[in-house]
Protein 1
Amino acid sequence: MKKSFLLSCMLVASLSKLSAQGVINVQDSISTNTHWTCDNQYLLKGYVYVTSGSTLTIDPGVIIKGDKNTKGALIVERGAKIMAMGTATSPIIFTSNEDAGNRTYGDWGGVILCGKAPVNWNAGFSTVEGGPRSLYGGTDIHDNSGELHYVRIEFGGIAFSPNNEVNGLTFCGVGDGTSVDHIQVSYSGDDSYEWFGGNVNAKYLVAFAGWDDDFDTDNGYQGKNQFVVGLRDPYAADQSGSKAFESDSYQSGTYTGSPVDNTKLTMPVFSNCTVIGPMVSPTSTAFDPQYVAAAQIRRGSALSILNSIFAGYPCGLLIDESSASFGSTVANIGSGELQFRNNIISGTSSTGGFQKDIVFVKDGARSLTPTTSNADTTSTGTDWSTLASVAGPWTWLTGAANANKIYSTEQTGVRLGNPFNLTNPGMVPTSTSPVVYATWKGNNGATTYTFNPTLPISYDTTGDSVNYNVPGVAPNFTTTKASNSFFTRTNYVGAFAGTGSTSDNWMKGWCEFDPNNADYTGNCYVAPNTTAVSTIGMSTVGAAKVFPNPAYDKATVLLNVKQAGDVKITVLDMSGKAVMEVFNGHSNSGDMSVDFSTSNLSNGLYVISIQSDRKVKTLKLSVIK
């Protein structure tokens, strides 16, 4: 296996020889199909490009380090793919090549995916920020840049200059044929995640202790994201003003933002987010003053945030109405393209005499210090007063149609476990949180009922309201932005359920909240307190695939068995629970084909587990009906 891998590496432009320590130095271009395995670690030196027509496959547990001296970065160019197939017990690690205890922000460049999906640049494409040569953009909304599953990206991200930055994980014109879930970006030297156009979708994203923004959306990005976490270090913020969400549609060189054409708007949807800022209390001063807001929506953006929790930011929602050349953010509110519904805002700053749950500014005025009033009263041109359907920022935020809830503090209101803890964050709601708890009297007033978080929401009040089941703060998946089949219809707002099950915390095991001291000396990473099953070697089972993918009513697993023996094929959901046994028996050597029905599987992403001789190979399968 190693010999064949090294032979393929010799075909790559400048892939250095294997060092005695089992570290492969990777530089310049990867221009043939390449497979990174746990036999080695990999060191990115300078910009490393996966070129068009090539696929980089990375096994579970592989450790890839970015060289600090050359600011190594991995760029997957248009027409190329990355297949980074980590697992909950063996996530793939991208990290600094510095020793434990010496790692810090911006040690290396980060990971960049480039696709052929639409962007709103006038030319229809652009060049990646930060120095890479790569172009992005096109016309294929279903463009496929590969898969990222259970991947950690740590200490990347470099801000060379304003608007010339490399982030922890960057999506440039990436299409929705790309599959992304269970990603943690930590200690990024710029934004944790940034999207430049495209429409890639993702679930289970974690941004931890980033420097600038957690989730930055630009250039016509129109994807969907669910189950999203942001947690900040109070003393690390950027001079540009740090936010959990920052969103822009237009800038110099892009579409002008005509109000009659929304096709080039930045209008992604985020649902079920839990975003924790730097302020443990509204009167706290123990944080970097460059923190700004939980979300800043500006320059004609139509970012929608639904069913989410925001806690501990100086300002909650900052609406920034830019000049006409950048479109109208407020007009997007009036048209319903920008929605902020069924959210909780808690613990915003009370300095200056009022809670800053929402602030409206014009042309960026006071956007870095939104502390003097809820709205600019001296602004001219387009502002809230020009919209008959919107009576003002506070009225809009708290109106019945939007169903947002305001709490003065997280501790007395939202009541999550321990959300401000930076080493062991407790994001799951406690048993008394309004996210998972409420009581009400039956119709006869004699019986008191309590919300059951293990059951679906029900507004049925017939009889004695025995079927009624609604938490204190309920989500809504019937709005125009939330009804898409991509979204899992939860009975809770925020990123975590509160049923009391250990599976409620989907970050457990594969996430790392002390990456500076993590041990990355081995060649195959196994998450602490877990037991990873090794990958099947080529001597036992060779090539394996599942098709069609996505599957509709049936699918086929095709694999090559190198050595006769027992084989078990199981379908798992994304929590690791077995939902279907496809095959369990003896197989002779040779090609093996197993058909199975997907008719009883819900829409979503599944793992095909192929076990043999106490080893396992995993494939991902998407089911769409």
Protein 2
Amino acid sequence: MVRRLGGDGLKLEDDDGMAEELALEKLGAGDEAATEFLKARTRVLDAEWERLHLSHFREWMYTALELVIGLILFLVFAAIASAVYEAGRADGLVIEAFSAPPDLAAKGLGGQVLASKLLDRLNAMQNATKSSRAPSSFSHDWGDDIKVAIPDTGVSLGEVIRYLHNWLGHEVHLSGELYETAQGVALTVRLDSEPGETFSGPVSDLDAIVQRAAEAVFRRAETYRYSVFLEDHGRAREAEQVLKQLSLTGSLKERAWADHGLALDWGLEGRLDDAERADLRAHAENPDLPNPVAGLAWLEGIRGHEEKALANAKAFLTALDRADAREISPEIARFQRVSYRATLAEEEGDYRAAISGLDAYIAASNAASTDFSLEAATDAALAHDPAGARDRLYRLDPDQLKQPKPDGVPAADAMLVKGQAAMAEQDWGSAARAFGQALALAHARAATSDGLFGDLYYRRILAGPFLAYADAMNGETAKADAILKAMPGDCYICSRMRGRVAAREGRMDAAAWWFARATEQAPSLPFAYADWGAMLLARGDADGAIAKLKLAAAKGPRYADALEMWGEALMMKNRSDLALAKFEEASRSAPNWRRLRAKWDQARAYAKAAR
């Protein structure tokens, strides 16, 4: 292309840069043609810029549209995947609207009304059942359908979701009908394709009929939790029969729960061997279920086998962390974690750590836990804080202490706190009375519990051995010996108290024998080593005492008793300078221990005088 810039016939080749340079030179000379050329050139550049700008905008819009379409497709795919996933996990009970004759419906007894009444009863029973097993879901399939139609299908989205649940899930559908009879009305309920059960009576007894039907449905939908419901309502023998039947006819998963439930019941009756066999069966049937391991820990604790109980408690916590979250009630699992972690701390003599965990749970749950409050009060007494223990006890609701429990007696546990607090003050008369009252309360509960509670744990572990020791410290050695004679020989706390009573009676060789036996029974625990060290310290054998107390401190690094007595043994060797460190360590675990503070002050004075 050739451009003409002036009347003199000057031609410039179409090189934009050169043309613009020549035009600018002529523009300076007032050449009008150059001016027009530059204006035209500007218009061309403006048009080019607008075209490029519009092209970039279109590219951006296409990119944004592609992203939006991709996002929509992703959300649709995610929604479908979520619906399929949730359908595969669906496993509750879905109650359909019942059928009822028009005349009954006109009286307010329509099918949906009856189904709603049944749903309310089921939810009420479920909420009233406190079990470690997570509850199933009870729902209905009316009034909450999603009415979004899928084009060209005549099907709603709610129907698709329902189809997926039926196809992929494990939901059980409950249906039924109400009809009139010569005696009044009859209500039939059925689960899926199983034969129905019919409950009849006069119309005036309709609520009772619905309750009977709800219990029948609860039993078939959640058999294990139904057995717990029966136990909680004083129907222990019915519960045992339900569990036995489930143990024989249920799936492998259900048999594991049933055998564990039987183990709990038999353990509470004192049938420890039967209970152990049942929990071992449950563990074999479902090794991933943590509860049988906890049951074995509890049974070993009742027997006084502290080493085995400790091992099972650790195994339970490990199993609880890997268990299927849907299998265990989340709240119960949290409660159990706190409880067993506190137990592990207590077995090391770290009572302050146990108290801290228990208090944190109580504060976070926004509700008073009588069990944990009593346990923390006991731990305070064992940490040589009797005033703190009593304060915790007095802050409890007295009515809560009177409430019966399947596995214990809160009023008896309160007396255990008082007994341990009295022991911390060396008030042996008060200690003996408190432990004696705890035994009496537990025995009275066992006598009226329809076989669901035995006081063996109180007699053998919680109160009996301490009562014997308190009697011995009161000079009533015959009573102490009689109590201990009835105790089993493989019971750790029994061996410890036998050793203490023998030392009190001046039978040091016998005491040493019992302490040695106790350390063999539970080599991981610090307490028997500390008892042995205390006996040697009382005999003036500082080196022998230190040897045992070192072992105790190794087993329980924050066990204040072992550290404090170690300090006393060092003072006996005229090493108050070294004793100061032991007293300081002990004070971190037992800051309110009066004897510790007195010995610490004494060691400071001796160390200062030695300088």
